[in-house]
Amino acid sequence: MDDRYRPREIEPRWQKMWHDTKMYFVKEDAMKPKFYTLVMFPYPSGDLHMGHTRNYTIGDLIARFRTMQGYNVLNPMGWDSFGLPAESAALKEGIHPSVRTPDNIARMKEQLYKTGMIYDWDREVASYQPDYYKWTQWMFLLMYERGLAYRKRASVNWCPSDQTVLANEQVVNGQCERCGAEVIKKDLTQWFFRITEYADRLLNDLDLLEGWPERVRTMQRNWIGRSTGAEMEFPVEGHDEKIKVYTTRPDTVFGATFLVLAPEHPLVAVITSAEQKQEVESYITLARKRTDIERLSTEKEKTGVFTGAYATNPMNGERFPIWVADYVLGTYGTGAIQAVPGSDERDHAFAIKYGLPIMTVVQPEGEFVVAGDDPAVAPVLKQGSDVPVYTGPGVMVNSGPLDGMPTTESKDATIALLEAEGKGKRATSYRLRDWLISRQRYWGAPIPIVYCDDCGEVPVPLEQLPVVLPTDVEFTPDGQSPLLRVESFVNAPCPRCGKSARRETDTMDTFVDSSWYFLRFCDPHNTEAPFDPAKANYWTPVDQYTGGVEHAILHLLYSRFFMKVLADAGWVQAQEPFLRLFTQGMITLGGAKMSKSKGNVVPVDDMIERYGADTARLFVLFIGPPDEDAEWSDRGVEGMHRFLNRVWRLFEGKVTVGSGSSHGQALGDYSKSDRDLLRKVHLTISKVTFDIERFHFNTAVSAIMELANTMQAYRDAHGPQTSAYSEAATNLLLLLAPMAPHIAEEIWQASGGSDSIHRQPWPAVNEELAAAEVVTVVIQVNGKVRDKVELPADVGQDEAINAAMQSERVKQYLDGKEPKKVHYVAGRLVNIVI
RNA sequence: GCCGGAGUGGCGAAACGGCAGACGCAAGCGACUUAAAAUCGCUCGGGUGAAAGCUCAUGCGGGUUCGAGUCCCGCCUCCGGCACCA
Q1: CA of residue A525 to C1' of nucleotide B65, angstroms
Q2: In sequence order, which residues have a C-beta less than 8 Å from that of residue A499 and are 6 or more positions away?
Q3: Helix A723-736 vs helix A634-650: angle between axes, to the nearest 10 degrees?
Q4: Model confidence at A293: pLDDT above 70
Q5: In degrees to the nearest 10, what's the CA dihedral of A96, A97, A99, A105?
Q6: Is the CB of A642 under 7 A from strand B?
Q7: Is the bond into A466 cis (omega within 30 degrees of 0)?
Q8: Which residue, A73, A360, A495, A825, is the most exposed by fewest CB within 10 angstroms?
């Protein structure tokens, strides 16, 4: 072994060995338990920084750890390589994305290689390649066949900067998630996936995902936003139409004093009276012009206009006015509400502004008086601001058959009443909208649809896939799909009748590409199908998925949707794609996320050059709890480099490693100091194993450091040539192997270890060696530590308490008196209560 | 407003209801060296004390318990998600 630790010499050597021997290439193996670990595949932007390294180091550690534990481990890598960033960069630099993308991939692959990441590269996929997106198009057709892909004209989100439509999920606070531009609404005919059909299952199955962070499950629950209530029909005076209303508080129907329609509601034009027509139309025009941001900023001030029409309350026959207001959303519920200003703050504000009647129908329990007994407490139909709004629980008043009923029962009772009289029914509503997948941009998978004058919209048949994305395209965005300009692409024969027809020219949202890639990894070379179900069923669900929390809704919800659709179609068995999810924190520099544009990156190449990959890897594991953000520290990384140098020196002077947990001698043959060292070894095995299992990598590294410190002290006293030291050294390397794989491999092979260290079994805890011989029992008086005493590990309660009572300190506190009570925690603590 | 998560030394952080601050960074002192680097050793939450020790201390206020950073109740602050969703 070299006398100095030289990572630049040893790391490339072992990387080559792992790579050349295809050490981590795997096949299905029914005899072994499988473990599918996956890190979210990256967008190939070019250069990796330490934020990425944290992510991939965790993935690599899991793969190596589970392999040593005897699992058949699938750890693949691929490239999420369609999408806007490549296109924007290409426009800026004048390099075509089809050239730039493979270059970037090659660069990132090289950096992963140099960091010692191991993947089954035989399974590499890239979503921009035709042999991948052929199957993305197949997925579209599957959706289409099952009635889950459809085209409709709708008011959609449009990013004026990126010049394309966006999914709801890609609009954050009224701004484009990618570029921050203010999103506007446009009426366009677009393709959607009917994810709302799966809303219930996507919500309910979140309960099964116990291996997911609570935070992510909550975010998905909020996003799906299920509420339950009722739909009710309100007849319109002088018209046959009835207005359907959705409400979560059907029990307050007796307090409804007007109806409100969203500006987009189709009945607005039908029911509006001649006198009000002009006012209503100009209001609607105004409302449509407002962006989401404007609507948010005017949150307090509600606006609306009277339609001139009247409706009848189905429960009590009351006649009341119908208004139009944009505080009611056209896209939620039925786009129409019953306004109950006595029980809803928004309706109350609106009623006050426009002088509409307010009536109390719910009263707080304690204040209940029989309706009519005291008009001051139970006001009947009053106008003005003196009738307060009350939204809490209570008792129904002014509500006919519901009077006196507590609100805990009134909701169900009202629904029963509505259903019995045929005036309404129980209903559920969701915040989730269908997923808009069309994009008017170039760098994506073409939507496999042809429009024929005779046959209409025709899906491209499987044997004609892929619909290839042409490369000779002028793709500067102008609000229209760039593919429209390519005659040879647009003009295509109708697959059904053969007459000349036109192709769909929009491409798919890149989130479609990434919604199924984890399945392609199971069978990446299949030319007949997206994957062989038998192989997919062997590997899926993914046992451990790792990635950034920024995908909590978009990617993770879409993938779950795809998995359920594929399960329904019989392609997979699992209902959920990702069994356990880990969301790692960012690494920040100067308090901000590392990013090239901000210029605050620590490139992984620099770290490898200066300290080697193992130092970089170990440091990002040690930097803090892996699910929390952590600030980069140059000093910290130097400390970690010092540690690896210390490890190196522990092996100076012919230290021999053997098999991990065997020890040739009986326990009694070891000296006291040997036994102490071995105890530390086995306690460390136990702690590191436990900590890796529960993703506490920072404390796993600490534990290994402690072991190294203990070994150093032992070595200073007894030298390295003892069997106890050899066993300690062996286990130290094995524990370090998944985290710092190169140095572990180098020392292993230089110290007589057989084969690769990465093919050794993970060390087992020897309970006999781990067992303590003596314990330090803490002696408390009234819960405060006053003394400690060393006792044999198998000490009984009586001896321990006895020993405690002998303590001089305890005697001082007792002052001759008898203790009131004594608590004993076996082998740990005696608490004397005085 | 609703829903999650988090508040511990100078810093990153540890602690099955049982010795608060492991491990590391920074800092200080010392050894080695002509010197520096590297390496090694010691100190390192506050107050008090010569020391042993005593005492205060895990965002704030209560509570449960022999014993609370940890459990319960009520607050405060920060981070994240949702939000005119009827």
Answers
A1: 63
A2: A452, A453, A454, A493
A3: 140
A4: no
A5: 160
A6: yes
A7: yes
A8: A825
